[in-house]
């Protein structure tokens, strides 16, 4: 691995790709790690897969209970999220996140600096009329006794405003993320297995465009051999330390 930091002289932009690992210290479990949700309950994946979700009312009931109990809307940003706010206050930064929890914005990053590749779990969308609403309002209906709350406008099925398995990512969002990866001088991947495409291609685009790569993740990733630096320490301590180094 090449030592870092080196002087950043070519392009000032820093791209940060964040995955589920950055939010585990906020109480939101990851999916694919050794103790991830899919490992503990493989059947849970159908709750976020479009086909079963639309076809089976029981799947939707279970999905609403999962959202109610997950506590994602009450989770608070942790030191890793706050470190990226500090970095963005000192240097040009764009955060490309695979997460849907909105914790980067809650920590203080403006919307314009965050690209939510997989959408947002803080909103719902009707699959029929495509209107959006607040997830908190839908969960309040669940708490009041509606086990599968329909759209209030047209009666259609409500789903989280996220990209479920079986759905394509928004090509406009992915296009913007790829442009950031091509333009950056430094690409930092935080808490991501770097195995889910097309987001997993972003580090490759950055490296092939001449950017340096830092990986902060507890488990090995496919990009470790080409990274300038790999940090295995806990994200909530490693990321603030990295940011302090970059901003000195």
Automatic annotation (TrEMBL):
Coiled coil: none annotated. InterPro entries: DHS-like_NAD/FAD-binding_dom, NAD-dep_sirtuin_deacylases, Sirtuin, Sirtuin_cat_small_dom_sf, Ssirtuin_cat_dom. The active site is at 118 (proton acceptor). It comes from the Bacteria. Keywords: Metal-binding, NAD, Transferase, Zinc. Residues 1-248 form the Deacetylase sirtuin-type domain. SUPFAM superfamilies: DHS-like NAD/FAD-binding domain. Zn(2+) binds at residues 126, 129, 151, 154. It is an enzyme of class 2 (transferase). The keyword Translocase does not apply. The keyword Metal-binding applies. Its EC number is 2.3.1.286. PANTHER family: NAD-DEPENDENT PROTEIN DEACYLASE, NAD-DEPENDENT PROTEIN DEACYLASE SIRTUIN-5, MITOCHONDRIAL-RELATED. This is protein acetyllysine N-acetyltransferase. It comes from Kitasatospora nipponensis.
């Amino acid at each position: 691995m090449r030592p870092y930091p080196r002087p950043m002289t070519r392009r000032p932009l820093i791209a940060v790709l964040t995955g589920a690992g950055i939010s585990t210290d906020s109480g939101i479990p990851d999916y694919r790690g050794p103790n991830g949700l899919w490992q503990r309950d493989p059947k849970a994946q159908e709750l976020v897969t479009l086909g079963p979700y639309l076809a089976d009312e029981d799947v939707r009931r279970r999905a609403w209970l999962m959202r109610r109990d997950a506590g994602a809307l009450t989770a608070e940003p942790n030191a890793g999220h706050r470190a990226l706010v500090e970095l963005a206050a000192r240097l040009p930064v764009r955060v490309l996140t695979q997460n849907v929890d909105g914790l980067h914005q809650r920590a203080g990053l403006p919307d314009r600096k965050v690209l939510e590749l997989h959408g947002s779990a803080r909103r719902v969308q009707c699959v029929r009329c495509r209107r959006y609403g607040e997830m908190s309002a839908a969960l309040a209906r669940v708490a009041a006794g509606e086990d599968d709350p329909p759209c209030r406008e047209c009666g259609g099925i409500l789903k989280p405003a996220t990209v479920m398995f079986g759905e394509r990512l928004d090509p406009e969002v992915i296009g913007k993320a790829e442009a950031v990866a091509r333009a950056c001088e430094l690409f930092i991947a935080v808490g991501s297995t770097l195995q889910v495409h097309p987001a997993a291609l972003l580090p490759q685009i950055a490296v092939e465009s001449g950017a340096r790569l830092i990986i902060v993740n507890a488990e090995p990733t496919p990009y470790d051999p080409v990274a300038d630096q790999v940090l295995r320490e806990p994200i909530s301590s490693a990321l603030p330390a990295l940011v302090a180094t970059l901003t000195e």
